[in-house]
User: What shape does this take?
Amino acid sequence: MTTFTLAHLSDVHLPPLPRPAIGELLGKRMLGYLNWTRNRHRIHQSDVLDALVADLQAQRPDHIAVTGDLVNLALSAEFAPARQWIEGVGTPQLVSLVPGNHDAYTRDAEPRFEATFGDYMRSDTGAAGFPTLQTRGPLALIGLSTAVPTAPFMATGTIGAPQLAALDRMLGPLSGLELFRVLLIHHPLRSKHSHKRLTDSDALQAVLKRHGVDLILHGHDHIHSTMWFEGPLGRIPAIGVPSASSIAHGHKPAAAYNLFAIARAGDAWTCEQTVRGFGEGPGISELQRAALT
Ligand SMILES: [Fe+2]
Assistant: This one.
């Protein structure tokens, strides 16, 4: 039985935050900048992120999924270092990316993100735009964008009707193939906080109930999380992961990533999750293991 290993990390919030250009600190960015200088610069640390990526690469995963929030305020000066960072993680063949709300922090950021990271978000057909579809080994990786600019103090996500309709069309034919379907999405499908929620989660869940996927990976909440959603043939696990650059603070755990060992057993899939990250001891270690299917 051949095992395919998928690594998942999220919410890079690449530190340090570069100096904003003149005129960039208006409206929502001004509030975000104050938040960064007061709090977040202490939480997101380069050495934490570097150690996490080094540990991930030492595991030699077959593929790596990154579910958004590469940058912080989507300042123009944040994009070149973020591009350099993802190239250090792996090539577009090895790494799949979807954007987070911080990547579309304000209206000017969305084209900037596509221009910088487009090759990490391309479907196998070469087409741009979401949903994306990439096959790697036995995996079909389906990427959604929930990244939309929002008002100050809001961090909601929205997929939108056109993208949901395209997802519906994409997932139908996939269910008949022997592929392990992984949905990549920045926002979790369920949230305790209305200002952080996915506004059209009900519509997404209806599509998933109709066609199913085998695994959902998300970020956004910066916590370890396992939720289950209804599929046509059983429950679908949805796994969230802490920020890849974060020290432990408040209720939020320190940086971690997940490894999923996926294999075909007879006419079904097995998927085992291993959590690696900063725990009680020094450095990075295995924190938990769970059989998802
Ligand atoms: Fe985030």
